[in-house]
From TrEMBL:
Domain Carrier: 1-79
Protein name: Acyl carrier protein
PROSITE patterns associated with the record: CARRIER (PS50075)
Protein origin, superkingdom: Bacteria
UniProt cross-references to Pfam families, sorted A to Z: PP-binding
Gene3D superfamilies: ACP-like
Lineage: Bacteria, Pseudomonadati, Bacteroidota, Sphingobacteriia, Sphingobacteriales
Amino acid sequence: MQFLEIIEKTNAFLAEEFEIGVAKISPEAILKDTLELDSLDYIDLVVVIESNFNFKVQPEDFVGIITFQDFYEYVNTKVNAGELV
């Protein structure tokens, strides 16, 4: 999967799942603030990632994810490493 495909797919499911406009999602935007995530929302986010990209998410993976760009790079790394469920 190409990086641009990952970005487009990620933005689409995040906008739908968290009911925000795709226009609010930009690489430099803060993931937590933009999606208004609380601790339960992170669980939803993990489930959505795992179901859309077929890899297992570890809680510690989120430590370094601040912006959407960080998130895209994380997903890209996991998908292209073949760490599928």
